[in-house]
Amino acid sequence: MKLAVITGATRPGRQTPKQSLWIVKNAAQIEDVEVEHVDLKDYPMPFFNEPISPRYNPNRDIDPTVQKWLSKIAEFDAYIVVTPEYNHTIPGELKNAFDFMTWELKQKPAAVASHGSVGGARAALTLKEVLSEGQAAVIPKFSAVHGISELIDEEGNLDATAAANPYGPQAQLDGMLAELKWYSDALVAARA
Ligand SMILES: Cc1cc2nc3c(=O)[nH]c(=O)nc-3n(C[C@H](O)[C@H](O)[C@H](O)COP(=O)(O)O)c2cc1C
């Protein structure tokens, strides 16, 4: 599985990369998984500004950073999008990045990882809808973290007590990664 872990927040002082790094570390330990951290901060795109919906416009005049983003996203078999919750939904810059897409996610599995006061649940639900309309096969399992500032450090290490909880964030992440791998292997074969 060629996996992208996408950090969907860009503000200074953001917590989201900690959840992404934790996921990257865990994914890297799974056999047959090649994982890359794709940070939205490295793709400072304009606000969506195209005159025609990208999927219906064969003659797009694409901003170079948007093209770099689309080419990067197209490289992968599977995706985990990591989002915080801002005002009960996903950050504007993350939605904006999806508005530029055409068929990059088509028939590929995508999972949602979130954090916030209720684990980012409201943002996660919105993100699932956006990914689904983006033509991804959104998988059922998810990772939702409550209290990220205390639970995960800057290097992406999860607090030991939380890690040992059989119903905690580590168990949830393990389940999500296993399910994503299953869908990815199945869909790689199907697309071939
Ligand atoms: C603009 C803004 C709106 C927020 N709205 C919510 C919210 O609706 N629900 C929630 O649980 N947390 C909310 N928070 C708290 C964030 O989930 C928390 O700050 C988290 O660390 C944000 O991710 P980030 O640090 O990567 O930006 C909000 C934070 C910001 C900056």
Write up what this structure looks like.
With 192 residues, this protein is of the alpha/beta class. The chain has one domain: Flavodoxin domain (Rossmann fold, 3-Layer(aba) Sandwich). Helices cover 40% and strands 16% of the residues. The protein contains seven helices and six strands, in the order βαβαβαβαββααα. It has helices spanning 16-28, 64-74, 92-99, 121-133, 148-151, 160-164, 169-191, and strands at 2-7, 34-39, 78-84, 109-115, 137-138, 143-145. Strands 1, 2, 3, 4, 5 and 6 form a six-stranded parallel sheet that branches. Strand 4 (109-115), helix 4 (121-133) and strand 5 (137-138) form a beta-alpha-beta unit. The longest helix is centred in the C-terminal third of the chain and has 23 residues, at 169-191. It is globular and about 55 Å long. The two termini are 14 Å apart. The model has no long low-confidence stretch (mean pLDDT 98). The chain binds flavin mononucleotide (FMN). Flavin mononucleotide is lined by residues 9, 11, 14-16, 84-88, 116-118. Flavin mononucleotide binds at residues 9, 11, 14-16, 84-88, 116-118.
SSE order, one letter for each helix or strand: EHEHEHEHEEHHH
Helix content: 40-55%
Q: What compounds are bound to the protein?
A: flavin mononucleotide
Q: How many domains make up the coordinates?
A: 1
> Tell me about the biggest sheet?
6 strands, parallel
Q: Architecture, CATH level 2?
A: 3-Layer(aba) Sandwich
Unreliable segments (pLDDT under 50, ≥5 consecutive)? Answer: none
Classified by CATH, the class is Alpha Beta
CATH topology: Rossmann fold
